[in-house]
# Entry
Amino acid sequence: MMLAALHWSTLGRVVGVSILAGIGVSTVFSLIILASARATEHRRTGNGVAAFGFGVLGTLAFVVFAAGIALGVHVLLQK
# Structure
């Protein structure tokens, strides 16, 4: 029987990691968009300190996003 050859624990782990990775990557990308929009808004109103802070936040979020994508590609190519 083909179902007997299926490792349910491995399948469950893959599904769990996929859900967490999808939520994490989506959240970090949303943070990039939010920080960029807020930085632009504060720059237009003349609040340079807040614009700088949101710019730094957006940059850090982008670095985390890029590292997550790179890690995902690395894991994909290793299997």
About this structure: Residues 28-79 form one domain.
